[in-house]
Amino acid sequence: MLVEPGTPTATPRPAAAAAAVAGAVTEPGTRRRRGRPNVLSREQVIDAATSIANEDGIDRLSFRALGARLGVAPMTVHRTIGGLDDLHAELVRRTVDEFTATFVWPSEWHDVVRVFATTFRDLMLRHPLVLESHSRRGALVSTESDAVVAKVVGALRSAGLSDAEAMYAFFVVYDFVVGHTGVQVGRGSSEAGRPERHALVGELLGAHSYEDRFTLGLDVLIAGIESRVR
To answer: What is the pLDDT of residue 119?
Structure first.
């Protein structure tokens, strides 16, 4: 039990015992040694940063938040990882690389486009930090992202599109996936908005499905690309 300073009932302790007790009282989950800072790995920091960004948003990512999550001082995090901009780039890079490693590419170009679009959408739905970082900080950069672009563009070129059309067709699909996912993540299942729009949707669809909406949009895009194939 902690005793308030100056309370008469407090029993003086020998200096060595008092020092031991003082060294043992730290924040929960934190083990400190006087004069020796906690040791973290970059992987520990990036794991914690990924969790915070996915759960609370990338704007909530700070050295203070990371220190609280890891049970260390904010300066310990800073010494381990460097600046926040570097950390943002690193956690997005690792998340994208891990996800792109799951691609299983088919041989037919329609299916290549479909696999890219659905897998990219799954990435952003599972890891909102990727969508948020993409929207606020520019294009996604990772070790494997260029290989994914090259695969999809190559499939479109082999289908008969010119180099320029194949590249722009990739961008069209990319923009559709980012835009659709942004709407879904931003609105979720919210019923806020225009009541007359909800009434029209209910009259025509019965129930709205983002999955059906995405599938139809992708079908329309693929059909449009096919119409330009020589």
So the answer is: 92
Instruction: Evaluate whether 50 touches 97 at the Cβ level (below 8 Å).
Output: no
The 3-state DSSP class for residue 107 equals: coil
pLDDT in tens, 186-214: 765 545 444 555 555 566 667 778 899 99
Distances (CA, A) of 77 to 24, 69, 140: 22, 11, 24
- Least Cα distance to 69 among 81, 85, 56, 51 occurs for 51
* 159: amino acid identity, one letter: A
- DSSP per-residue string spanning 114-176: HHHHHHHHHHHHH-HHHHHHHHHH-S---TTHHHHHHHHHHHHHHHT--HHHHHHHHHHHHHH
Q: Yes or no: say if 90 and 45 are a contact pair by the CB < 8 Å rule.
A: no
Rounded distance, CA 12 to CA 219, Å?
A: 78
Supply the pTM of this predicted model.
0.66
Query: How far is it, in rounded angstroms, from Cα 124 to Cα 181?
Result: 7
Is residue 177 within 8 Å of residue 117, measured between CB atoms? yes
Q: At a CB cut-off of 8 Å and minimum separation 6, what does 61 contact?
A: 49, 52, 53, 84, 87, 88
Structure token digits, residue 141: 């950069």
108 DSSP assignment: S
Closest CA to 114 of 165, 160, 158, 151: 151
